[in-house]
Amino acid sequence: MSTVLGIPVPVILGQLTLGLVNGSFYALLSLGLAVIFGLMGVVNFAHGAFYTLGAFAALLGLQYLGINYWLALLIAPLAVGLLGVLVERLLLRHLYGLDPLYGLLLTFGLALIVEGSLHQVFGASGQSYPVPEALAGAVNLHFMFLPLYRAWVILASVVVCFSTWFVIERTRLGATLRAATENAPLLQAFGVNVPLLVALTYGGGVALAALAGVLASPVVLVNSHMGNELVIVVFAVVVIGGMGSILGSIVSGLVLGLIEGLTKVVYPEASNIVVFVIMALVLILRPAGLFGRE
User: Fold this and answer.
1) Cβ atoms of 236 and 23 closer than 8 Å
2) What is the DSSP letter of 143?
3) Span 137-166, pLDDT tens digits
4) Residues 111-138: tens digit of each pLDDT
5) Which is nearest to 77 in space by CA: 185, 173, 213?
6) Contact 141, 12 (CB under 8 A)
7) CB atoms < 10 A from the CB of 20, how many?
8) Would you list the DSSP string of 93-125?
9) Residue 150 and residue 138: Cα distance in Å, rounded?
10) Spatial distance between the Cα atoms of 172 and 186, rounded to a whole number of angstroms
11) H or E stretch including 138?
């Protein structure tokens, strides 16, 4: 059996594949952060909380309303996105024009409220979400048996990420969204409802986080602190890709997932910090991020 640095090649390929699964979650979550910051200038520290709410919406919808996984992929992000619109209209809109630190503190407090409330109601122990029957089983890649559900996560995340990038960067709607951030009064003069556009942008960003939560629910235990386990890493991914850079967040999320997976084989002790080491190096060499603009 061929080896690299004394490690069997199938083991390396297997870890890279699993790293790509993690990278898919990183990309999808960091995409929502990048959309909110790039178009609104808000550092949304509640992103992990909305991710958790998406997972709980899928779980509770199945348990109490009989909503299956495929419907949850649509209903949970819409419900959480609507909640995000309410948060923007009732809370965030009062902070525009102030130091971004105020928005960060508000969303951080909101995250604590959501996490604490879920912990109080559902406790600390996690609950499992069943894998849908259509995605049960595994596919033989010859170097590993990859569960079909994890292959679906990769496919769904990549499609959603690049579709979102295309809409924002290559369509008229995306141009209107960017114009709302650059010159809102002028756009308002042309008859565009800018406040509604901004609210829908925030709602769309948190809906992406909720979608990631639904995708993650059959992979991890659904619990009140599941967002905390990812949000710090995702912020690091956004910084590496460039704050506000949508393409940078997508590419960085996928690549960093691969690097993290490879590190688990080569030097497992460093797998939990490799992302932050890369972030430190990027901030030293290119403070705006790999895809960001000065």
Assistant:
1) no
2) S
3) 998 888 788 899 999 999 999 999 999 999
4) 999 999 999 999 888 899 999 999 999 9
5) 213
6) no
7) 22
8) GGGTTS-HHHHHHHHHHHHHHHHHHHHHHH-SS
9) 9
10) 16
11) strand 138-140
What's the pTM value of the predicted model, to 2 decimals? 0.93
Q: Which residues contact 37 (CB under 8 A, 6 or more apart)?
A: 43, 44, 238, 243, 244
CA pair distance 95, 88, nearest whole angstrom: 10
How far is Cα 163 from Cα 288, in angstroms, rounded to an integer?
24
Name residues whose C-beta falls within 8 Å of residue 197's C-beta, 6 or more positions apart in sequence.
176, 177, 180
Tokens of 181: 């951030």
Which is nearest to 46 in space by CA: 235, 276, 273, 256? Answer: 235
**d(Cα 53, Cα 94) in Å, to the nearest integer?**
24
Name the stretches of the chain with pLDDT < 50: none
Q: What is the dihedral of CA 120, 126, 131, 132, to 10 degrees?
A: -10
Spatial neighbors of 183 by CB under 8 A, at least 6 apart, are: none
What total number of domains does the chain contain? Answer: 1
- Quote the pLDDT of residue 90: 94
- Check: CB of residue 240 under 8 Å from CB of residue 279: yes
Q: Is residue 290 part of a domain?
A: no
Domain that holds residue 95: 3-285
Can you tell me which residue has the tokens 């069943």? 130
**Domain contains 238:** yes
For residues 249 and 243, give the distance between their C-alpha atoms in angstroms, rounded to a whole number.
Answer: 8
Residue 69 lies in a domain: yes
Domain contains 291:
no
What gap in Å lies between CA 27 and CA 253, rounded to an integer?
4
> Considering only CA atoms, which of 112, 153, 134, 125 is closest in space to residue 253?
153
Radius of gyration of the chain (CA): 19
Measure the CA–CA gap between 258 and 262, rounded to whole angstroms.
Answer: 6
pLDDT number for residue 5: 59
The CATH code of the domain that includes 271 is 1.10.3470
205 residue type, one letter: G
